[in-house]
Design a protein that fits this description.
Elements: H1 10-34, H2 36-48, H3 51-78, H4 85-101, H5 107-119, H6 124-155, H7 161-187, H8 194-197, H9 200-210, H10 214-217, H11 220-247, H12 254-270, H13 279-290, H14 295-330
Helix pairs in contact: 1-14, 2-14, 3-4, 3-6, 3-11, 4-5, 4-14, 5-6, 6-7, 6-11, 6-12, 7-9, 7-12, 11-12, 11-14, 12-13, 13-14
């Protein structure tokens, strides 16, 4: 029998669709108001930085959106329900927007993305599989980056017990989350203790994960290709930080930028806060200082990078979410 798009629970989905986009918009506006000083500082830095390097940084950030969209394109293509890149790019930006506004370690963005993919007639099981695969690729790529970071720090004689501990914790999380997702997709609610099985929200999440086709989420060649794309995102972000250092008059510091970005991302991943505000900047500046870069240059380059990596998708996401809210209201 043909599978209907009007699946059980779809009516409930339409209900939460009506409030999730307004909540995201309100959250974004609140963040913008509370951190208006950061925006003013970013604008001031832009006026003083070298414009050619700023243009390169902008291109590199759009490259991260392309790599992320390519992950979804590849996963959906393997599931037999491809979407063109021009449709996936806005969805990717909306996901980044949701992840930044609602600090749930990526859960909020994935919920929005699955909903938008289903709205585009992608089978729900394929949308869920693409999400699981993206999560697996994300944590594997960050595990690789953590190992590379520790290696660079050891080579430069900058390694400390605290940094090793943070990297080890990230490696543990990077192993546990993908393994947990695959375990739940295979065993379902039977894998959970009784007190968790009795919670409706938990049962719904496990049911959602269980919809993903096993052969798709366990395809090693597909996962390897997705990891490479995620590493492309990581490298483009590191390159953006390098370019921001160049824009404020520093030289090329590839190793320093890699270490600073990786450790700052690890801290934000392990302790999600709205937009990573404060924790990312403090860690990145501290690591750049550790690697021998002056405080003023480290501060200016980090704030420039955050302006591109954080405020750009926030502004773009607000416009896209506002448009989606209008379409939902008309529907």
């Amino acid at each position: 029998m043909a599978r209907s798009n009007e699946q059980p629970g779809r009516g409930k989905a339409r209900g939460w669709q009506r409030w999730i986009f307004p909540v995201l918009l309100v959250g974004a506006l609140l963040v913008a108001v509370l951190h208006f000083g950061d925006l003013k500082k970013f604008a001031e830095l832009l006026s003083k930085a070298h414009p050619a390097w700023l243009a390169v940084a902008l291109v590199l950030q759009f490259a991260t959106y392309f790599f992320l969209s390519a992950q979804w394109w590849l996963a959906l293509k393997h599931g037999g329900s491809p979407l063109p890149m021009n449709e996936l790019l806005p969805l990717t930006i909306t996901k980044l927007f949701a992840d930044q506004v609602v600090p749930t370690a990526g859960v909020s963005g994935n919920v929005v993305l699955v909903d938008r993919l289903c709205a585009k007639k992608i089978p729900r099981e394929n949308a869920v599989a693409a999400t699981i695969l993206a999560i697996i690729a994300y944590y594997i790529s960050y595990a690789v980056s953590a190992v590379a970071t520790i290696t660079i720090l050891w080579w430069r004689d900058k390694l400390s017990l605290l940094l090793v501990g943070l990297a080890a914790l990230l490696l543990a999380v990077a192993a546990a989350i993908p393994a947990g997702a695959l375990w739940l997709s295979d065993r379902g609610t039977k894998a959970l203790p009784l007190w968790l099985r009795e919670r409706e929200s938990v049962r719904q999440v496990v049911k959602l994960v269980g919809e993903a086709p096993n052969d798709l989420v366990r395809d090693p060649r597909l996962i390897a290709r997705l990891v490479l794309l995620n590493l492309g995102v990581f490298i483009a972000d590191v390159a953006t930080l390098v370019v921001c250092l160049l824009a404020v008059g520093e030289g090329v510091h590839l190793g320093s930028a890699f270490v600073a970005f990786a450790m700052a991302s690890i801290v934000v991943t392990l302790g999600p806060v709205p937009l990573g505000l404060g924790s990312f900047e403090a860690t990145a500046i501290g690591m750049l200082r550790l690697m021998g870069i002056g405080f003023e240059a480290a501060l200016a380059a980090t704030l420039l990078y955050r302006g591109f990596a954080l405020w750009l998708p926030l502004v773009l996401g607000m416009f896209l979410t506002r448009g989606q809210l209008k379409r939902t209201s008309r529907g």
